[in-house]
Amino acid sequence: MGRLEKRVEDLVRDWGVVVQDTLETQSSFIAFGKRGDQAVALKVIRQPGDEWRCGAVMAAFGARGMARVYEYIEGAALLERLNPGLQLASAALDGRDEEATEILADVIDRMSRPCESSDEPLREDFKAFVSAQDWGKGFQRYLASGDSQIPARLVAQARQFYFDLCASQRSVRLLHGDLQHYNVLFDSDRGWLAIDPKGVIGEVEYEIGASLRNPVEKPELFASPETVERRLRRFEAKLKLNYDRALAWGFAQAVLSAIWSVEDGFAVDAENPSLRLANAIWPILK
After folding, report:
1. Full-model pTM
2. CATH number of the domain located at residue range(s) 3-81 in this protein
3. Which residues are catalytic?
4. Are 12 and 31 in contact (CB under 8 A)?
5. Which of 32, 151, 173, 199 would give a disulfide with 21, using CB separation of 3.0 to 4.6 Å?
6. What is the pLDDT of residue 48?
7. Residue 45 has pLDDT above 50, yes or no
């Protein structure tokens, strides 16, 4: 029995899960089933990485705009199973992008509300989570790597924006870190809810970046100045955020996302969805 299988078997036993179905992804193993009368999903992360502490992040949100977490340890979590679990991406891909943006804004709004749970991190506990500054180290890694798939000028511009924004953040908080159309699912009882948080400390404007570069398979939808501006105006109206900061974060994060693709071993060129978004935003920034 492999290490992952042994971890799953132990957690199924320890957390009293009756498994009905399973799903394997590149990053995790998911067992769907029941614990008593509760429909649950057991998520076991394959190896340490962005989602290794997803259970602690979800607990910190206290079910505000997010699926509930019933048990968790590092590398695994027992979650509320969402039914039917329809991805928000389907709305955007079906021509209802404005509706999808409104739903994303509502989820962010619910996630931002005060929580009565004692699990909510206090400012002195923020050091337990990764920060936006930490993620920005990818710029320097790329510039030092010698790779030339992403224009050095674009990387330098994005890096400057990114760290200027980091230095001037206001009201930082725990964010989802990857809040986009594939990480928001519909539940018939609780409505639209976020899943799979990475957890990052930053201002609310930072949270918008991932949604601007999705649904990833349809860059012709999102990589245009008109779509970017329309989406950001909806976020601005719902969340009272700073439009210019969200726009600049969107540009910088798009380039950083392309850098992460290179680091993950993917070929990146001008047709990369994240770079297409960065190039669509640049004229607005100027």
Report:
1. 0.93
2. 3.30.200.20
3. 178
4. yes
5. 32
6. 93
7. yes
